[in-house]
Each structure stands twice: as structure tokens, then as C-alpha cells.
Amino acid sequence: MNASDPRPPVIGLTTYLEQSQTGVWDVRAAFLPQSYFEAVTRAGGIAVLLPPQPVSPVIAARVLDSLDGLIITGGKDVDPARYGQDAHPATDEPRPDRDAWEDELLRQALQRGLPFLGICRGAQMLNIALGGTLHQHLPDVVGDTRYQAGGGIFNVVDVEVEPESRLHGVLGAQTGPLQVPVYHHQSIDRVADGLVVTARTADGIVQAVEFSEVPFGVAVQWHPEQTAEDIRLFAGLVDAAREYEHDRKAHA
Asked: Which among 101, 226, 236, 245 has most CB atoms closer than 10 A?
């Protein structure tokens, strides 16, 4: 970067915390697939990883003070107790540490207007944080495994994006269906107050929502980090984060 380059914004990405093996070690470890933070850096941002940890309003505020944008990433299912349901047999064992961490980060990000992007679990977490619910197992709804083939294989589905939405603008006002990679067996059911659905599949499954009260508040059910040739969503977040950082400095 030379002296004339714009100041790169700092983007925080939440991570997994799971039992992991590497070399002789078999320990609980924080990790995130490279495709997530590589997309951020290619879009012009600085990626900072945010592993699950004990959280309080003060801790979350201190973290967000240092960020210009936030990504809530994919991962294990959110604890259904958070939206008043018993667990479906196919629902993952709960990860209460990660749920609590991301919930507090999201709530405070919304309050301060911090640009954010939710990805897969991140879209579900946003909906739950604002009072919505999930379909816990989509094969019970659509009759097959089109949204999660299993074995780490991403299916591609067509989604229809709402015109005039921020998502539509970020994607360059694309016409016709958008093909996206998916790997989810859950999805948004009752949409929370404050969210607007901006993309669905032909069978009605919610694939994107937006929180219109912040400059950039987009969450998608698909995995944009899997399409290395298309970083439009990450670029949109980074651009919004750069504006956020500029405005924050101007009012400091």
C-alpha cells in the first residue's frame, strides 16, 4: 500500500471453537476457513478474527470500538432454546459460548450502526437476536436435501433478489436469478421485526434479509466466500466500513 491508498477498514470475523486436530495436538481450537478472511483482504479490508470467549456488554463494546465492520460467519446450529423451541433430532449440540458472543456483538453493532454481513449461521443468528425463529430441519419442509447435500459438498441453487434492495445494489442490479452455493439444513422461519426479506428460492425459503436501519446490514443464507471469483458482498461491506471509519473520525 502506498501513501495515496485509502486507509483500509478493519473487519472482524467471528470464528468456530471446536475440537481440532493438527500434528500431535487434539485440542479445542478457534478456527475459520481461509476463504472467509481471504475474501475480506481481496476486497481491501483488514481481517481480524474474533473467537468465542466470555462476553459482557463492556467487552463487546471494547471489541466493536476497534472495528469498522463485522461478519458473523457460518458454523454449527444456534441453540433452539434461544427462539423457544426444543431441539430437533438433526439439530447440532448447542454452542452456548459462540451463541452468546455473537448475540452481544450483533446487538451492539445494530445499536451503533456498524456495517455487518451475516453468512449462513450469521443470517440465522441475526433473525434470532431480533426475535425471529428458524426451520430446524429443511428436509421436513421441502422434502429433500437440496440445501445441504452433506459430505462438505456445496449445492448451487437459484435465488431471486428483490429489486431496490441493498443486496440488489451491491450485486450490480443483476437481472434474473442469482446462482449461489448453499450448505444449510436450517433456515429462517418467522422473520423478526426490523428485518426485510430480500431474496428467496422458488420454493419460498428465505435466502437473504436486511436490517434497513443501518447503512449496511445484509445477511445471506448462502456462502459467498465459496465463490472466489465473486467478492461483491465483501466489497460492499468493505466500502461501507470505510465510510463508517471516515465518519467516525470526522465526528471524533
From this structure: 101
